[in-house]
């Protein structure tokens, strides 16, 4: 066997089978196992620096031809790619469901559908979103100013294992719409999904090298940043994010950081208990809680706390956990086994400090990696379960005496990705939402904002910076190029140019005073213009 990284555990242990490294001569590979069954699904190469650079170089060549196509043609071809994803949706659902142990409903709705909607949104609107912007100049009225959205080149996309199709493919779509190429480094924990996506991409008639996939581990991701890419979109944990941002900083490559979350859900005194309870259960346990926008902590007003908790308990008891290949289950597997240890540590810490177990609490013994959907009550901020990212099927409840208290507690977090507010009063919801420190705040719903292609998605604080989805993210994927041109024929001699002398200084001073100092009759001329 080759080196085993922190991400691997022993594949021989059937209860925790996940990806492992194997070596054959000089070639190292990563084997991908199904977390729900332990079945070996395939293996991928660990690509070294040279191999990564070759993929980036090929992508750059393909990009040169792609960038000169009119945007309408690029979008038409991407819509054909969407058709191919729709036609092969069952293959995609199959691989995502197997590689992540994810229920088929989630593989379709949270992965394939999201990508198809994003392609549709961008391709129907891109010509408008990326249309050159005329800037109405304030005082330089003799000039004409236009901002163009130019392709950057090759975009490096480094992605995690929890949504191995929708996260990287969404970024790929944005890159390609703007005329760039994309090279994706999928997580070593779920590398096969993007290879299937690439197979469909190639068979759909898209230029083959325009999308490159570099498989491997963290070192492969680091090699991608070093391979001459023009921008990096990173989605992953905070600590890796810091390393990736530093590497980009060293090379002065712009980057988007989509990092962890600790989404609070504020249940106000006037919330609809049934809807809030269902939202907590879905928002906490979809993808077995392995989502950066999962409900990670509930602040419930004391007047509804007990009724809400009781209803959540009933709903959790009805959840079906198991292998999504066998049956329609609600909650699938734990993709990355270390998440079970993390969940256990948080639960033990909370119980030691006075929390009580309302449901679940432990891993499920037997084949595959499964963890009981867990609800904890009587939690407070001395417990790690309320303050650190869990990224697993654990939802802690805390009783609060007012919405202000909930807000204050919600905002103590070092993370700020998603947040949720439940109230029957839309105006109140809006008011509270505006006070929560998060990139997105959703009133009376959960998770759904990631599926909305029109709206920006991303975090503040240590949840990162930059946005994906929405019009601004598409513009930021491109390079803004400002062209300043003549509106009137330019003079032969410009009064601001050489030579400098007493006369030109006097003229400049007079103009300066007229613009901003103000005269008796005309006031400050500089204020005349909007
Ligand atoms: P990691 O940070 O461990 O890994 C993310 C990606 O970075 C993987 O492809 C990984 O490769 C790669 N990588 C690791 N080290 C380096 C390095 N030094 N240079 C470049 N790339 C590197 O995250 P996880 O995969 O464990 O994902 C879970 C985290 O992702 C959670 O914190 C979650 O909150 C966050 N996340 C954020 C989202 C958002 O939109 N804000 C969405 C989804 C998840 P490899 O896996 O092969 O080691």
Please explain how this structure is put together:
With 530 residues, this protein is of the alpha/beta class. The protein has 16 helices and 23 strands. The site of NADPH dihydro-nicotinamide-adenine-dinucleotide phosphate (NDP) has 30 residues, from helix 7 and helix 8.
Key phrases:
Aldehyde Dehydrogenase, Chain A, domain 1, disordered N terminus, 530 residues, 7-stranded mixed β-sheet, Aldehyde Dehydrogenase, Chain A, domain 2, 2 domains, alpha/beta, 39% helix
In short:
The chain contains 16 helices and 23 strands. The chain has 530 residues and is an alpha/beta fold. The protein has a 7-stranded mixed beta sheet, sandwiched between helices. Strands 8-7-6-9-10-22 form a 6-stranded mixed beta sheet, sandwiched between helices. Strands 1-2-3 form a 3-stranded antiparallel beta sheet, with no helix packed on it.
**Distance, first to last CA:** 69 Å
Largest sheet: 7 strands, mixed
In helices, the fraction of residues equals 25-40%
CATH-defined superfamily of the largest domain: Aldehyde Dehydrogenase, Chain A, domain 1
> Would you tell me which CATH topology of the largest domain applies?
Aldehyde Dehydrogenase, Chain A, domain 1
CATH class of the largest domain: Alpha Beta
Radius of gyration: 27 Å
Number of separate helices: 16
Taking pLDDT < 50 over at least 5 consecutive residues as the criterion, the unreliable ranges are 1-6, 8-18
**What's the β-strand tally?**
23
Rough shape? globular
Give the names of the bound compounds: NADPH dihydro-nicotinamide-adenine-dinucleotide phosphate
In terms of DSSP E residues, the strand content is 15-25%
Whole-number mean pLDDT:
94
Question: What is the SS-derived class?
Answer: alpha/beta
Number of separate domains: 2
Q: What spatial order of strands do you see in the largest sheet?
A: 13-16-17-12-11-19-20
């Amino acid at each position: 066997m080759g080196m085993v990284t922190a991400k691997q555990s022993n594949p021989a242990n059937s209860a925790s089978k996940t990806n492992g490294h194997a070596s054959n001569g000089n070639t190292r590979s990563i084997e991908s196992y199904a977390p729900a069954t332990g079945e070996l699904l395939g293996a991928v190469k660990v690509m070294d620096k040279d191999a990564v650079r070759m993929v980036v170089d090929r992508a750059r060549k393909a990009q040169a031809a792609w960038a000169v196509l009119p945007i309408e043609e690029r979008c038409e071809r991407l819509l054909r790619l969407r058709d191919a994803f729709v036609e092969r949706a069952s293959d995609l659902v199959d691989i995502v469901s197997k590689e992540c142990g994810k229920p088929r409903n989630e593989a379709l709705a949270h992965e394939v559908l999201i990508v198809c909607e994003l392609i549709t949104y961008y391709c129907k609107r891109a010509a408008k979103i990326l249309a050159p912007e005329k800037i109405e100049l304030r005082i330089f009225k003799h000039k004409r100013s236009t901002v163009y959205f130019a392709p950057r080149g090759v975009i490096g996309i480094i992605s995690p294992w929890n949504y191995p199709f929708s996260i990287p493919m969404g970024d790929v779509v944005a890159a390609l719409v703007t005329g760039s190429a994309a090279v994706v480094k999928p997580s070593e924990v779920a590398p096969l999904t993007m290879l299937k996506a690439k197979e469909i991409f190639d068979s759909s008639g898209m230029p083959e090298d325009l999308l490159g996939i570099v498989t491997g581990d963290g070192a492969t991701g680091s090699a991608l940043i070093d391979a001459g890419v023009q921008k990096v979109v990173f989605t992953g944990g905070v600590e890796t994010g810091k390393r990736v941002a530093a590497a980009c900083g060293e090379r002065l490559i712009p980057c988007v950081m989509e990092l962890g979350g600790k989404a609070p859900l504020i249940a106000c005194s006037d919330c609809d208990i049934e809807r809030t309870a269902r939202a907590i259960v879905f928002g906490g346990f979809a993808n077995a809680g392995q989502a950066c926008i999962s409900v990670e902590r509930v602040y419930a007003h004391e007047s509804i706390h007990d009724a809400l908790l009781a209803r959540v308990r009933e709903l959790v008891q009805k959840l079906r956990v198991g292998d999504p290949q066998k049956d329609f289950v609600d909650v699938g597997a734990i993709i990355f086994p270390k998440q079970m240890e993390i969940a256990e540590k948080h639960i033990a810490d909370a119980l030691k400090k006075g929390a009580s177990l309302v449901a679940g609490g432990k891993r499920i013994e037997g084949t595959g990696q499964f963890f009981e959907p867990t609800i904890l009550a009587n939690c407070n901020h001395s417990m790690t379960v309320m303050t650190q990212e869990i990224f697993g099927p654990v939802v802690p409840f805390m009783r609060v005496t007012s919405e202000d208290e909930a807000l204050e507690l919600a905002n103590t977090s070092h993370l700020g990705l998603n947040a949720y507010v439940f109230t029957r009063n839309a105006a109140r919801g809006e008011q509270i939402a505006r006070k929560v420190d998060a990139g997105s705040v959703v009133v009376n719903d959960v998770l759904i904002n990631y599926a909305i292609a029109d709206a920006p998605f991303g975090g503040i604080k240590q949840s990162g910076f930059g946005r994906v989805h929405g019009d601004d993210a598409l513009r930021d994927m491109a390079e803004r190029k400002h062209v300043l041109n003549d509106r009137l024929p330019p003079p032969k001699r410009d009064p601001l140019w050489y030579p400098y002398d007493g006369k030109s200084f006097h003229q400049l001073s007079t103009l300066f005073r007229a613009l901003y100092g103000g005269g008796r009759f005309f006031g400050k001329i500089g204020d005349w213009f909007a």
